[in-house]
Amino acid sequence: MAKKEVLKVEHVGMKFNLSQEKVDDLKDYVIKLLKHQISYNEFWALKDINFTLNKGDRLGILGLNGAGKSTLMNVLYGLYQPTSGQIFVGGKEEVIHSPSRAIELGIGMVHQHFMLVQPFSVTENIILGMEPMKGLTVDLKTARKRVEEISKRYNMQVDPDAKIEDISVGMQQRVEILKVLYRGADILILDEPTASLTPQEITELMEIISNLTADGKSVILITHKLKEITSCADYCTIIRQGKYIDTVKVSDVNENDLAAMMVGRKVEFKVEKKDIKPGEVVLEVKDIHGKDYRGVEILKGLNLSVRRGEIVGLAGVDGNGQTELVEILTGLKKGDSGEVLINGKNVFNKKPKEIFESGITSIPADRQKHGLVLEFSVAENLILQNYMKEPYSKKGVLKKDAIMAHAKDLVERFDIRPAGSESRPAGTLSGGNQQKVIIAREITNDKDLLIAVNPTRGLDVGAIEFVHRYLVEQRNKNKAVLLVSFELDEIMSVSDRIEVIFDGQITGSMPAAGADEKTLGIMMAGGKQHEA
């Protein structure tokens, strides 16, 4: 028997020796990018990126915040134009000059921040811009039928008549996926698709992705969550500082391997905490009642306390009152009744500035809506609550040298990228680096209570390690920390005590050291602690 010729090739998921027969199989790609580069003056956002996707593949894209993942996908979707490089789609070289051209080529993108019209129905959102007409009117009946067919085909179970404002975040994401499928996409780019989902919704999304690839679709999954890569992706491409690092077959590596390739060093997943005996109560919430945006009562006599020297994790499925509670605590929303005591002082329904001055600082859930002024520079965003104080101003006049010196220090300490971004508008940074700006500001505000809402949303594994270390550092400095997160791993790893919220009330409490995901999951769904 003749010896087979063996070639060394670099291909998505195949950076190892392959037989000639396998190389021939790899010619059936749907997308290939060669030598892609994007430069801004002397800064390289992408440099020499090679990228291949085959039909039916589930490909993960990993990289630190600002590494170039979203930039690469925006090139593929026609939002950015490369400085140099080639794109081949289905064997033919293409110039993707706009999203409309990408859609024509069968490429669809689901962005991290959904692009839905809240008062419109599911069907109306899906067909927006591609409405089927019957004479001079939109043929909603035909559109609804088509939406229902696609939903059933991929087991998405979306109500075509529901209003966007009335459905969960997970359902809204399905609507975004249906939008690209309705437009005929065979290649789906999902940008941080699990960032706002509950554990159950993440499992359901993984099943949807499997259904799509089983039907011949190809999926590119941009995520910072290693667990999703190892459970869902077939292959994974790692990018670091705009450069291609490696492409691996996921079954050949583990989470530690992926993290090390992404960060460039070994990453510690376990948060080290020294034993501290909690001190006096900093935050005491008494019998809070409040309504949601629809005027429906969602907080129903909630009680909660946080002491100095402890991190209290608030675990619950989204929509059980966490958002409204944090908004009341920080003054963004008025409650109906109750008390919010900070070091014994009642600040219930006070203005945000008074609450801030009383000792509360917060990392908000929506970094773009409540955390930053996107048009302002990074330096200006870092002093938003303190711009009228020394050393940043004197007699109402801003002192730019002091503001810039402060910003340079925090950009370096908190690894905000790109380096030297103090003068850049905050809106030009990646989502993860926008989050770092907020975290740097709120932690250095040095208040008695830090409320952190999904603080690692959209962050890579290296940045998550960094944020957790700072949260623990606040606790070690005898500060009180309230951690509100949909990530159970984060709640269990970082917290000292876990409180479970369900239907607007605290329904269970336990030390984090003895908590497990199954027990918390049952309690979050309304089960009693003894039943779990």
What does this structure look like?
The chain has 18 helices and 26 strands. With 532 residues, it is of the alpha/beta class. The longest helix has 16 residues. The N terminus is likely disordered. Helix 15 packs parallel to helix 16. Strands 8-11-12-5-13-14 form a six-stranded mixed sheet, sandwiched between helices. The radius of gyration is 25 Å and the shape is globular.
Main pleated-sheet profile: 6 strands, mixed
**Helical amount:** 25-40%
pLDDT average, as an integer?
86
Number of helices: 18
Task: Report the radius of gyration as a whole number of Å.
Answer: 25 Å
Distance between the termini: 62 Å
Secondary-structure class = alpha/beta
Shape: globular
Q: How many β strands by DSSP?
A: 26
Strand content: 25-35%
